[in-house]
Amino acid sequence: MALGTATAPYELRFGAGRICLDLLATTHPEERFDSLDALRAWIAGAGLVPDGTPLAHADGGWLTAFRELRDELSRLVRAGLAPEPRPAPGAALGRVNEIARTAPPAPRAVPDRDGSLVRELDGPPECAQLLGAVARDAVELLTDPVARARLRQCEGDNCPIVYLDSSRGRRRRWCSSEVCGNRERVARHRRRAALTRS
User: Domain range holding 60?
Assistant: First the structure.
């Protein structure tokens, strides 16, 4: 799903380049994890579980756990984005490493109705396993110097979204050309129009 694309009724954004960065985007422009349904939609949209995996067993503890992991990841990612990168906050790093040790749910291939193979989980995914998958993604990102060098903060007004710049020439400026990029183009057009009227 492209960044900026909405999944009704939840406006979830994907496309930051990594699952852990997509998790960080769930705070903008407002809290997206405001219900279990929104969290379930994010888990499915992020590809943490195969399509159609039931997540009815998720409870309020899942919301709390995903928000807490998101806060720890934000501390780590933003420390690396500072003009002079700061050392990783020790408590956040320890917590993310601890969560990353939990094995993600094991997929298996099973025949679909038409005989083609599809992914299915051995059993219902547990919250700790899903958190572990996101934390491992963050560990891989933050320990890869090439990927880490491609981390960017959106240049859009008041946009806190961090993304992985995979553009040619590494000149991407916005989390989404359709969202923040379009806002910037409209603002630039209005400024030019105001100057011409003056």
Answer: 19-152
